[in-house]
Design a protein that fits this description.
Elements lengths: L19 H23 L24 H21 L3 H11 L6 E5 L5 E7 L6 E6 L9 H18 L3 E7 L15 H20 L5 E7 L1 H7 L7 E7 L17 E5 L13 E2 L2 E2 L12 E2 L16 H11 L15
Parallel strand pairs: 3-4, 3-5, 5-6, 6-7, 7-10
Antiparallel strand pairs: 1-2, 2-4, 8-9
């Protein structure tokens, strides 16, 4: 039998025998993408990256600059970004930026109006707060969808403040989030980059807050991958993972933190249908709500992927107790939603 000229010597014929590992990885990639795309069809995303929107460079600060000075400078930068977007005919972005200004009352520790955009907003008084929640968002979060992210931060702030007045919430959009329907959302590349920003931010936050303040990281969806890669100091007492696709770690004990790790997922959350596997850097492995992961379970109710911080929900009550420090482990058997 004559060997075909276009087949390397020693390479067996047939589709599955010559490249089993690559085939498995490719099948996994297709499976993950199919799950994400199907979910996006049912739960459409409204985010739109805007790389061509003009904006000024972020304001520069010295280490000793006060919080009021930072807030004022970032508001001025935000207003200039809105003006530049309007002049460029990007009226949608301009309107969203003007809304973020909150008529001159918003408190931004950081703001960058360029491209997809970044913003770190404070709700409350950091210098007197001894309970601080830092919200880390998931995919498709940027300046064009910021209000949706902020609504959750406001709801959490109101709920926590009702039980613990000396509290604050930080909405941390400090990284370029991946698109829900993209290859980027299947890997930890964006999360690894974000973690190098989040870790130092938490250290600085601990120095600004009231002595002995408890800082909780609340991490939604792809944000849970970010938090799982972030080195945290002793000021971070709790990490809550919700709507998580996995973290890339096999267990909570592998995370670079000494904080208590919590996990919850609503019964209506489509992300439960995403395969919890990891092969060749694709996927995020063990489901954080699986008892094998070792996180403390919290009740998340019946809500969907975007409903964890909606007023009146079980999940918001649970996250509030985690922030305050009164949460108790709740024995839960997670329900995986079915299509």
């Amino acid at each position: 039998m004559t060997r075909r000229a276009d087949r390397p010597a020693g390479r067996p014929e047939g589709h599955g025998e010559g490249r089993p590992a690559g085939s498995r990885r490719e099948r996994l990639r297709r499976t993950l993408l199919a799950g994400l795309i199907a979910s996006a069809v049912v739960f459409p995303v409204s985010a739109a990256a805007s790389p061509d929107v003009p904006a000024p460079a972020p304001a520069a600060f010295a280490e000793h600059d006060s919080l009021p000075a930072r807030y004022a400078a970032n508001r001025a930068n935000l207003a200039e970004a809105a003006r530049m977007a309007q002049d460029a005919g990007r009226t949608g972005r301009a309107a969203k930026l003007r809304a973020m200004e909150a008529e001159g009352t918003a408190r931004f520790l950081a703001f960058d109006g360029r491209g997809q955009g970044r913003a770190v907003e404070v709700l409350g008084d950091l210098e007197t707060a001894d309970r601080i929640a830092v919200l880390v968002p998931g995919s498709d979060t940027g300046l064009d969808t910021y209000q949706r992210f902020r609504d959750g931060a406001v709801a959490l702030r109101q709920r926590v403040q009702a039980e613990h007045p000396r509290s604050a919430v930080v909405a941390w959009l400090g990284y370029d989030t991946p698109g829900t329907v993209s290859a980027t959302v299947l890997t930890a590349d964006r999360a690894d980059t974000a973690a190098t920003e989040l870790g130092p931010f938490l250290d600085r936050l601990g120095r600004v807050a009231a002595p002995g303040a408890r800082i909780s990281l609340l991490c939604h969806s792809y944000g849970s991958v970010v938090c799982a890669r972030t080195d945290t100091g002793p000021q971070v007492t709790d990490i809550a993972l919700f709507g998580s696709p996995g973290t890339g770690a096999g267990s909570a004990a592998e995370l670079p933190t000494g904080a208590q790790v919590w996990a919850g997922r609503g019964r209506g959350d489509w992300i439960g249908n995403v395969p919890h596997v990891r092969i060749g850097g694709i996927g995020f492995g063990t489901d954080p709500v699986d008892p094998a992961f070792g996180a403390r379970p919290f009740a998340a109710g019946s809500g969907g992927h975007s409903g964890y911080l909606k007023p009146g929900t079980t999940s918001l009550d649970s996250l509030t107790r985690i922030v305050i420090g009164t949460a108790q482990t709740t024995p839960i058997t997670p329900e995986v939603p079915h299509a």
